[in-house]
Amino acid sequence: MEPVALFVSGTAAGLVAGTASCTAVQGGLLFGLQGTPRVVARFLAGRLASYVTAGAVLGALGSMVRLPRRSERACWSRRGSW
Fold it and tell me: Using 50, 70 and 90 to split pLDDT, how confident is the model at 60?
């Protein structure tokens, strides 16, 4: 399969699955807030802040991990052989 087609189909599948699961979980919570604009804005801001914080923490932890040289070479050599 062409890399571009694989990327486009993977992105489309991720967007569909992500939208459906996010709507199922967050939709009920937002509906329960009775649509008050101030409360909804706070909810969405808190959600955004938690995702940014989690991403920063996981990124910092991931930057501290170093694969052994042999494993790193194996990963790089297999990168283009899909």
Answer: very high
Q: Report the chain's terminal Cα–Cα distance, integer Å.
A: 10
Sign, Cα dihedral of 74, 77, 80, 82:
negative
pTM (two decimals): 0.53
Residue whose C-alpha is closest to residue 43's, from 61, 59, 28, 54: 28
User: How far apart (Å, rounded) are the C-alpha atoms in residues 34 and 24?
Assistant: 17
What is the token pair recorded at 39?
């409360």
For residue 26, how many other CB atoms are within 10 A of its CB? 13
Please give the structure tokens belonging to residue 7: 């990327």
Contact indicator for 75, 67 with CB cutoff of 8 Å:
yes
